[in-house]
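dude i think i finally got it to work??
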Amino acid sequence: MVSVLQRPAPHRPVAVVRIARPALAPAGRRESLAACVAVAWLLAVAMATLVQAAEIVDRVLAVVDGAIITQSDVIGISRLGLEPAADRTVAAVRDALIERRLILAEVDRYAPADPAPADVDRAVEAVRRRVGGAALDDILKETGGSVEQLRRYLRDTLRIESYLQQRFGAMPASDAELADYYRGHAAEFGGRSLTEARADIGAALARERRGTLVRDWIAGLRRRANINVLPD
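look at this
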């Protein structure tokens, strides 16, 4: 510290006022203080680790252009039967959600009209009837979901269906194409003739064509996307 000096008038003694420097702590006290600091630091690190571990309540399965797909997403979707996948394994449902994310990005780009609230209500009620009210509440609770999140999911499903219908819906078939399809799938139409089953043949052929086009389109989306599937 700097001393403060007061210069006196002539013939008077000089008064000197000094601010004393604090005495250094004895070596033992310094060591004790250092030990306390070290212990406090270790406790802080341990607490931070515990807090971090407590916050990790889910497992990331995939990242699609920055969007995260978690294990609870897969479990909830599978138990609620929200993705029409015959294979309900984690890998199959995860892949279905990856493709859904890619499709939704395209839907958001073109922004088709939102479904009517009544249509979303009916979709929610259909899930509730299929799963059961109490079971639905339990599944949402166990996977960290809510009814509002379910509504948003089903709303997006209706948006996807509307977009795909607009993009791939109109695919009329010629008489020759209907006849060719009928010859290859006659057993599927219950013994009806080509004329009797014409409407059903046209619908089946349209679904097959649409499925092929959609699969090819999604394959292109996957090639252009940044998809990171984490190892099991």
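The helical segments are 27-55, 71-80, 90-110, 117-131, 133-142, 147-168, 175-184, 198-224.
im so relieved honestly
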